[in-house]
Design brief:
The protein is mostly helical and 228 residues long. It contains six helices and two strands, in the order ββαααααα.
Length: 228
């Protein structure tokens, strides 16, 4: 196989007569290599953030600290991504038929991606509840999180038993869309709600200080006048 040329892999499908998957290194190996590099950089940022967190907030609530161990899930995620890259770029080099199914590392990546996302969203949902002291937005976020995780788990199982990428992409399109949509809505809800409550908390503190400052000043001035 010439890495700069395209070749075709013909795979039979059940619902469509014949799917012709055109192999092109620029849209298969390239994105996976770039994704692995970006993933490794983000994992390095996560390691630094985890160290800073535990160094400065060692006494955090017990329900927050275990959730921060999502770095363990990210370690497995990085290993799976690296394994997928190796399968595609090294052991599968020169054999386009290897792209008819996902490597096992890519299947496991789907699973650990969902686990990591769920752990992070649970921690932010708890944080939102602590800020708002209300249940409806945290419960909504929790429901969306559980939907996304359940669908991701189903997709991961189906990915492990797939026989063709073309069939998998065709049959699981609705589940993939549902999982991604639920995850995006959940994270947007958490982000906007936490930002709004933090802003309201900051404005409340500023208003309190602005109210107390003149009172303190007047008390200090009156005491100075008495001494005089």
């Amino acid at each position: 196989m010439n890495a700069t040329n395209s070749s075709s892999v013909i795979t039979p499908c059940e619902n469509i007569p014949l799917a012709v998957v055109t192999f092109n290194v620029y849209i298969t190996v390239g994105p996976m290599a770039l994704g692995a590099l970006v993933n490794a950089c983000l994992f390095g940022c996560l390691v630094v953030q985890t160290y800073v967190y535990y160094a400065n907030f060692a006494n955090d609530h017990r329900w927050i600290k275990p959730i921060k161990l999502c770095s363990t899930s990210q370690i497995a995620h990085v290993i799976c991504v690296s394994s997928s890259l190796w399968s595609v770029a090294v052991s599968g080099y020169g054999d386009p038929s290897r792209f008819e199914v996902f490597p096992w590392g890519a299947d496991a990546t789907i699973l650990f991606t969902g686990i990591t996302g769920t752990l992070i969203e649970l921690s932010f949902a708890f944080r939102l509840w602590r800020l708002s002291k209300r249940f409806y937005l945290p419960l909504l976020s929790l429901a969306l999180c559980l939907v996304a995780q359940s669908v991701s788990f189903v997709i991961a199982v189906k990915a492990f038993i797939m026989t063709s990428v073309a069939i998998f992409a065709h049959d699981q399109n609705m589940l993939i869309t549902l999982s991604l949509t639920s995850r995006v809505v959940c994270e947007l809800t958490l982000t906007m709600a936490i930002a709004w409550y933090l802003r309201r908390q900051r404005l409340s503190m500023f208003s309190r200080h602005a109210t107390l400052f003149p009172i303190r000043s007047s008390i200090i001035n009156s005491q100075d006048d008495k001494h005089d």
